[in-house]
Amino acid sequence: MLYFIIGSFGYAGSGYTEVVEADSIETAEELARQLAIECAESYGFQQDFEEFGTYDEVGYLCDDEESGYSETGTLDYEAVPYNEEEHEGMY
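The structure corresponding to this sequence follows.
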């Protein structure tokens, strides 16, 4: 089945949309989450469970690692069944 996925990590211009094929909505949501992580990493953000207590928070580490994270964001992602009329041209 085709799913429309959308996501970002809370940083301006970091959003993405894509149509994917998956066996279930859960599989599509996991793919959407993975793409959100890859998107965040492409901007230099990283996951740090020890710092944030969750894997859905990301941060941009300052050049001076002792200063900590200068910016943070939250992974935001969603998967819905693809509807050609509704989603055409959005990806």
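The mean pLDDT is 89.
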